[in-house]
Each structure stands twice: as C-alpha cells, then as structure tokens.
Sequence to fold (109 residues):
Amino acid sequence: MIDEKYWREKLEKLKTELHALDQNAAESRQAVTLDQTSVGRLSRMDAIQGQAMHNAIAERRHKTLQRIDHALKNLADGEFGYCLNCGDDIALKRLELDPTTALCTHCAK
Fold:
C-alpha cells in the first residue's frame, strides 16, 4: 500500500529543491562575453565550457522535474509505484532511491 501523503511530500520537496538550484545557477548559464579587451582567450574558453556544463546540468534538472510531475500525476491517478512496462509493484527501496522511477528492476534491465 502506497502512503500517498508521504510520497507527495517527498516529491514536492525534491521539486522545490530543484527549482531553488535552478534559480541559483541561472547566472552561470548566461551568455559569455566575447570582448577580447576585458577577458583573455583562455578565460573565455573556460567560461564557454563552464556555461556548457551548467546548461547540461540545467537540462538534466529540467528532465528530472518532468519525471517528478509525471510521478505526481501517477500518484493522483493511483498508478504510482507500479511498473509502467509490466504493471508489477516497484520495490519500495527502489522508490526511496528514486521516487520518479517508472520501471521495476526487472524491466529496467
């Protein structure tokens, strides 16, 4: 039996944390200034590489937020905790590690 309140709180907390991280990292994803008079070439390359890494992290965060929203929808629909592929229960330990998981360990192989 799934404790809906517990999982909703856990998912909402995770969602809030990810939104906060995204807000804090917004400046790191800003466009890099290409003014050669103020910053050297290697510093610009480092800044561009840093920006690319921050953008990749933001994209992963965005995908995780989508998975959280999907898990919340499944929770509301009474489908949370069941494998999307085979319909069996997803182990509670697996859900504790990642409450957004949609597959049981057998189907995730």
